[in-house]
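WARN  no MSA supplied for this record, continuing single-sequence
INFO  ligand: flavin-adenine dinucleotide
INFO  echoing inputs
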Amino acid sequence: MLCILQPPTPRGIIKSMKIRENVPISELTTMRLGGPARFVIEVEKIEDIPKAYAFAKEKNLPVFILGGGANTIGHDEGFGGVLIKNAMKGIAIKDNFITAFGGEIWDDVVAFACERNLTGIEALSKIPGSAGAAPVQNIGAYGQDVSDTFVSAEVYDTEDGKFKTLNKSDMGFSYRKSILNTSEKGRYFVISITLKLKPGAMSRPFYNSIERYIASTGATDFSPQGIRKIVSEIRGDKLPDPKEHASSGSFFKNVYLDEAGAKAAEEKGYPVYHGHDGLKVNSGWLIEKAGFSGELIHGMRVNPKAALVLINESAKNYSDLAAARTEITDAVFNKFGYKLEQEPVEII
Ligand SMILES: Cc1cc2nc3c(=O)[nH]c(=O)nc-3n(C[C@H](O)[C@H](O)[C@H](O)COP(=O)(O)OP(=O)(O)OC[C@H]3O[C@@H](n4cnc5c(N)ncnc54)[C@H](O)[C@@H]3O)c2cc1C
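INFO  complex generated
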């Protein structure tokens, strides 16, 4: 159910609205592709949100909400509209409820929780991007999804220009989905999010790769800080650091199957993972078995350590990425009959 916003009051730095013109999207996104955005507005206080939308309306331009650009890809022709970024920062805590402004770096929110020995988001350590984007695709990793602890988001509703609260039951969360990237895509500007954590630690068994790490290293600290350290090390070994390598992380979603599909996959010898969120075949495995692991295709390197991650090594244009995507998805479909879905969104 929707109700009217009581604006949150986390600590925060409040400055005035910044408007920039013709900013290359390649500089705003971690895949580092894309031509200029006509306008970029960074909102640093709540009252500037309606003003930013009014600016776009007055010029009759479309709006795209941008966070850290870690799951967003630009096109060569750029974007002839207004990119609005949430630049409001601040994290507050009360009774194990953490409220973070959407412009806060997501990993700083995780660190904040772990430092206070609160469990619930430690496995989501080091996911690049902003707190405001976290519920959009219901970020998840190593057995946790943000929906597990999500309580509410304070939003600006661009349909009626009102500030509202979206509760967890409004969000339609599932694997990499919420209403914010499906039925209500682009409608709500997330101002802040509130999560409910609890003192203590995750219970075992942990996600496979965490258990494997523990078995090989003898790690014994499973506190939020301990799991944060383990996850950071696993990710550091396997995933590209967006500061060094251009990428959007997982380029393809995993393939989720129903019972019959999973049975058929198991009969063919495909590894089906029985996760807390359903039955899936890892796209990385499919891409690897289709022969792409470590390959450079149209300037995109298929990450040898996690093949569902594409690294932009030398692609100059969106068309290079599109050609690599087609080659990989066609090969996987021809070999396994699964249609891979792209995870990052595109600014169009
Ligand atoms: C190396 C790497 C590893 C990654 N690992 C993971 C992982 O383990 N798990 C995972 O789930 N993801 C992962 N990702 C993807 C990415 O980190 C997440 O999707 C993250 O939430 C993106 O945040 P962002 O602020 O950069 O969002 P952006 O890319 O800027 O935006 C993503 C979407 O959210 C919308 N959006 C952004 N801010 C707001 C807002 N304030 N209000 C409303 N809509 C908004 C945008 O319109 C867009 O549709 C990874 C990415 C990289 C580069």
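The radius of gyration is 20 Å.
INFO  checksum written, moving to next record
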